[in-house]
Design goal:
This protein is of the alpha/beta class. It has ten helices and 13 strands. The strands form four sheets. Strands 1-7-6-4-5 form a five-stranded mixed sheet, sandwiched between helices. It binds oxa(dethia)-CoA (UT7).
Length: 338
């Protein structure tokens, strides 16, 4: 029986840093409000005048992941890219990414599960490896939010939250008999409830307009920017994340104390603190990056892996739990022996 192990991790943040104070005038916000409500101090954004897009950030993170995994890109059997900020409406960003990585011929799959996209992608990769279909898969989460945010006072509730960035992991196949000594994904757990799809979404452009969708009046509205019912998202996040973490632990006959490190999605520091409190997880076991990077959606978890390794907090042999909640609504968790 095959299992997936993490061969290497990489991440990339664009060099321009926007502190909360840089947004104050633009969005009629304040450093105090942002820090108190979210824990964010700054975020990285791509050069707003450049043509840099999501697949470019994905490439940078993936090169590092490949280097750390000590495998060559030509050994990859598949690439999976999770994003909510695609380069173009179609084809999928994974195709642009695959061309830039120069690995023609192998399958290139987009995952559009937003904040939960990386765990969905990891789960898909894990299934292909478990069945023996593929041996080496690159899973990337990448976002360029900064070019799609409403940066006026009307958009401040969402605009201050998001950062650009990318994170990647290379998964490889291992035999179940080797598992006691090797890192591997123990399980993944995926959920969605589409009745809440409009609680965090981009409304326009949409095919639900009669006739040519571009004839619609939408261009006069701000409906092509992300909109969020923040309070409702928060309420569901602090319910669903503990739920799916307990589901993942129960499946593996583990309890919260046996987990060495928790690397959660980074939507709001308050969410992660509430989740930890509910499950009686000591805050020092939760690794957060939101203060430096904001919410990079599909990229938060692989960036978290990479940052935790660099900080010496994530080491081989550790038991790690990741969980995410976001637009869709979608939520998911995974347990990994690192
Ligand atoms: O990763 C995707 C999943 N996303 C999430 O999980 C996010 C979940 N939601 C949240 O994290 C929080 O709801 C937010 C951080 C987005 C907002 O915090 P909140 O405590 O729910 O604030 P609020 O939306 O209720 O707004 C409170 C006040 C309002 O003013 P009034 O009506 O009390 O006068 C807002 O207009 O704060 C105002 N406000 C702001 N003020 C300064 C909203 N955004 C801002 C801002 N700066 N950026």
């Amino acid at each position: 029986m095959k299992r997936s192990k993490i061969l290497g991790v990489g991440s990339y943040l664009p060099s321009q840093i926007w502190k909360n104070s840089d947004l104050e005038k633009m969005m009629d916000t304040s450093d105090e409000w942002i820090q108190q409500r979210t824990g964010i101090r700054q975020r990285h954004w791509v050069d707003q005048n450049s043509s840099v897009c999501t697949s470019d950030l994905a490439i940078e993170a993936s090169k590092k992941a490949l280097e750390n995994s000590k495998i060559k890109k030509d050994e990859l059997d598949m690439v999976i890219l999770a994003t909510l900020s695609p380069d173009h409406e179609f084809p999928g960003t994974a195709c642009f990414f695959q061309a830039k990585l120069n690995v023609p011929g192998i399958p290139a799959l987009d995952v559009r599960q937003q904040c939960t996209g990386f765990i969905y992608g990891l789960s898909i990769a894990d299934q292909f490896i478990r069945t023996g279909t593929y041996q080496k898969i690159l899973v990337v989460g990448a976002e360029v939010h900064s070019k799609g945010l409403n940066k006026t006072p009307e958009g401040r509730d969402v605009g201050v939250l998001f950062g650009d960035g990318a994170g990647a992991v290379v998964l490889g196949s291992c035999e179940k008999s080797e598992l006691s000594s090797m890192s591997h994904i123990l399980s993944t757990h995926l959920h969605a409830d589409g009745q809440f799809a409009r609680e965090l979404w981009v409304q326009e452009p949409s095919m639900n307009h009669p006739g040519d969708r571009m004839d619609s009046e939408y261009i006069k509205t701000a409906n092509f920017y992300p909109q969020m019912n923040g309070k409702n998202v928060f309420i569901h996040a602090v319910r669903r994340m503990p739920e799916v973490i307990l589901e993942a632990l129960s499946k593996n006959e583990l309890n919260t104390n046996q987990i060495d490190l928790y690397i959660f999605h980074q939507a709001n520091l308050r969410i992660n603190e509430r989740v930890a409190k509910q499950l009686e997880i000591p805050q020092e076991k939760v690794f957060n990056t939101i203060d430096r990077f904001g919410n990079t959606t599909a990229a938060t978890i692989p960036i978290g892996f990479d940052e935790a390794i660099k900080a010496g907090k994530l080491k081989p042999g550790m038991l790690v739990v990741s969980a995410a909640f976001g637009s869709g609504f979608t939520w998911a968790a995974t347990v990994i022996r690192w």
